[in-house]
Amino acid sequence: MELDSLDCMTSSDVIDDDEILSHSHHQFPSLSKPHGNGDYSNSVVSSAVHPSTTSVHELLECPVCANSMYPPIHQCHSGHTLCSTCKTKAHNQCPTCRQELGDIRCLALEKVAESLELPCKYVTLGCPEILPYYSKLRHESICIFRPHNCPYAGSECSVVGDIPFLVAHLRDDHKVDMHSGCTFNHRYVKSNPQEVENATWMLTVFHCFGQYFCLHFEAFQLGMIPVYMAFLRFMGDEIEARNYSYSLEVGGNGRKIIWEGTPRSIRDSHRKVRDSHDGLIIERNMALLFSGGERKELKLRVMGRIWKEQQNPEGGVCIPTLCS
Ligand SMILES: [Zn+2]
Ligand SMILES: [Zn+2]
Ligand SMILES: [Zn+2]
Ligand SMILES: [Zn+2]
């Protein structure tokens, strides 16, 4: 669990890089690896493209990690190729022959790759795109058919999949509470609110409008100030998330704060949303004021509502046929 946010302002970029990288390493759980080489598209390639393309394609697969290789492609003195990620990890020793690796580019292979056109690796998930080799990776990092990462916060969960798969995974493997309906009323109680480091975070999944939403509630240090934060994420893509809004209301003791926002897509990591402060943030002192009592116990009541935005021109969302 990562509640230490002291480095949060600087780490979001790093996390994003990891996420893009991880797409090429994690397998979609419901798919097996054809031929054990981690490539979903092989069968399509061999039937749709000239047979010689298949073997070139195999040459472009890193023999160490089985991912597709992109420039700079490296090789050892004996000609064993490897990708740049594996080269960094190899500590100057060829993973295939154990000889010194050196710093040799394999330009011929890089040039051959330029001439290839291949299907998106999410072809089995419905993506129809055929792409030049060098734009394939870029497309796959934003392909709307790519699986989603598990939205569970603070864990190193590497599970990926489509939304129904992830909902079942959250319920069964992370024991996340599931609620139906578009309103909620949650109480968060903590007996020792002085220890923000040990404060818990919570995830609840809501099912409404035929969609799933993740409500996150957690405690962390914002600079020197201990805070609680609640925010909603949409289980789906950004473009769909914009069709929804939500409000959160917290208060007590004659005071209240209301937050209204648009849920963020789970394409944005939990950490990224948290670090952008895109949600209801309550300083601990105020949270204790809301809790009443002797400031010994945190008792927060968070009420919320999710609604679907009217898709009309006034609302800022254009329906193409109505926009002249
Ligand atoms: Zn590799
Ligand atoms: Zn070698
Ligand atoms: Zn695609
Ligand atoms: Zn998970």
From TrEMBL:
Q: Which GO terms describe its cellular component?
A: cytoplasm
- Could you list this entry's UniProt keywords, alphabetically sorted: Metal-binding, Transferase, Ubl conjugation pathway, Zinc, Zinc-finger
**InterPro entries linked:** 7-in-absentia-prot_TRAF-dom, E3_ubiquitin-ligase_SINA, Sina-like_RING, TRAF-like, Znf_RING, Znf_RING/FYVE/PHD, Znf_SIAH
Question: Might you name a Gene Ontology BP term for this protein?
Answer: ubiquitin-dependent protein catabolic process
Q: Name one GO molecular function term.
A: ubiquitin protein ligase activity
Q: In which pathway does it act?
A: Protein modification; protein ubiquitination
Residues forming the RING-type domain are 62-98
Annotated SIAH-type domain ranges read 115-175
Q: Which SUPFAM superfamilies would you find in this protein's record?
A: RING/U-box, TRAF domain-like
Superkingdom field: Eukaryota
Say yes or no: keyword Ribosomal protein present: no
What catalytic activity is recorded? S-ubiquitinyl-[E2 ubiquitin-conjugating enzyme]-L-cysteine + [acceptor protein]-L-lysine = [E2 ubiquitin-conjugating enzyme]-L-cysteine + N(6)-ubiquitinyl-[acceptor protein]-L-lysine
Checking Pfam families in the record gives: Sina_RING, Sina_TRAF, Sina_ZnF
Known EC number(s)?
2.3.2.27
Family from the record: Belongs to the SINA (Seven in absentia) family.
Q: Any idea what this protein is called?
A: RING-type E3 ubiquitin transferase
Organism, per UniProt? Answer: Rubroshorea leprosula
